[in-house]
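haha ok so turns out i had the wrong file open the whole time. this is the CORRECT one, sorry everyone. sequence first:
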Amino acid sequence: MATGPTESDDQPEEPESSGTQPENSGEQPESPGLDQELEELLAQASVDLDSLPLDEQVSLLKSRLEQAQQEAANNLDTAQRAQAEMVNFRRRTDEDRINNSKYANSRLISNTLPVLEELELAVTHAESNSGGVSDSLLEGIKLIQRKLTGVLESEGVASIEAVGLMFNPLEHEALGTEETSEVEPGYITQIIRPGFRLHDRVISPAQVMVARAPQPEQKD
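then structure:
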């Protein structure tokens, strides 16, 4: 017995999906690189230059050459100035480092000098009063004095010369004047308190007396 067509036979078949998506056509084209832009500018400049008469080309090239030479000179001057500043900076840094090292103990040395002066006064007093101090004690004081003097000298301390020299306000401190015909006026006659310098820097000026010319005798 014949049967009629079924519902599934009347429906058209759907095309099978290929499973692939269409490519995205919205991608941006790559922008030209810096080299390409530079080549285009050079090409344009070449075309503009070629379009000029020969004498104008020469004039334009000379102008560009002078401008380039001026820029090169300016750059060289700037570089030389920067190099000179760097050299000066290094020199100042080295000088500061050396000075800081040389005078690092200046405060301690300044505080130690009065102790040395007291020892010298003690020795002078003991030698002038031989009966009051034993010889062993005096030798002990002298030994301490010599050791302390050696330590200070090893650190760059030196005494300031004064007697017989012209008064120098940078190294000497005048406590007074005295009339004398044996020493020229302005010269130092005696030291009241010794002075010291640390390397080339005065840390304690010498206190001195300065000679002055005698006053002429007044006649009655």
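Strands lie at 157-159, 172-179, 188-193, 196-198, 201-204, 206-212.
again sry for the mixup
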